[in-house]
Amino acid sequence: MTSVTTGPHELEPAPTSMAERAYAAIQDQLIMLDIPPMSPIDDLALSEALGIGRTPVREALKRLEVDRLVVSYPRRGTFASGVDITDLAYISDIRVHLEPLAARRASENAPEIMRTELTELADAIQDDDVMLKSRHELMQWDLRVHRSIYRAAGNPHLEDTLVRYNNLATRIFCVFLDRITHFDRHVDEHVGLLRAVADGESRKAEEIAGEHVAGFEKAIRAIM
């Protein structure tokens, strides 16, 4: 998966197996809509494009079906799942409760090295020019921020749940990204959230995280 470079420390560990590599790469293409919703998925073509055997690719697709990013039909094959805007309310209902929890836990539990990495990520985002970023780069920033906080929370079950629902929210985000204005405000919220977590300001981090999710849903509904 393409990742944002933030300095000497990497907040996301590199995939360690061929199946993990396939999972990360295909997941990225599905989230970013590089594999369009409802399009057929050819495991042989993916295997050749990624330089990974068909067995790891098929294993990855099974995991991605559990994540609701792909869907398989008997005798028809495997397809990228559709993006249903009616799912926004359901996804937001979960995230508005769990994102603040993750932010609070991260602010309370993150070890010093992770706090330093979160600060470095905030600095990198703040120093960059949002207007010069491509669509793909903007969404990679967004994913990196959220996943970094989930990991810093130190609860693998919470992390897995939030990664799954944030991935689904990001697909919706990608559909409407070209119509969203004031993306700089969204980025500013990321910076404030990262700094609150890194500084151990649990209440502030919790509030920003909740407002961020609610603001995302409101922004999408405003342009539907």
Structure description:
InterPro entries: GntR_C, TF_FadR/GntR_C, Tscrpt_reg_HTH_GntR, WH-like_DNA-bd_sf, WH_DNA-bd_sf. Residues 16-83 form the HTH gntR-type domain. The chain has 224 residues and is mostly helical. The chain is built from 9 helices and 2 strands. It has helices at residues 18-31, 43-50, 54-66, 87-109, 112-127, 135-152, 156-176, 183-198, 202-222, and strands at 70-73, 77-80. It has a two-stranded antiparallel ribbon. Strand 1 (70-73) and strand 2 form a beta hairpin. The chain starts with 17 loop residues before the first helix and ends with a helix. The model is unreliable at 1-10 (pLDDT under 50).
Quick description:
This protein is mainly alpha-helical and 224 residues long. It contains 9 helices and 2 strands, in the order αααββαααααα. It is globular.
Q: What's the assembly state of these chains?
A: single chain
Q: Shape from CA axes?
A: globular
- Mean of all residue-level pLDDT scores: 89
What integer value in Å does the Rg equal? 17 Å
How many DSSP H or I helices? 9
Total count of strands: 2
Helical residue percent? 55-70%
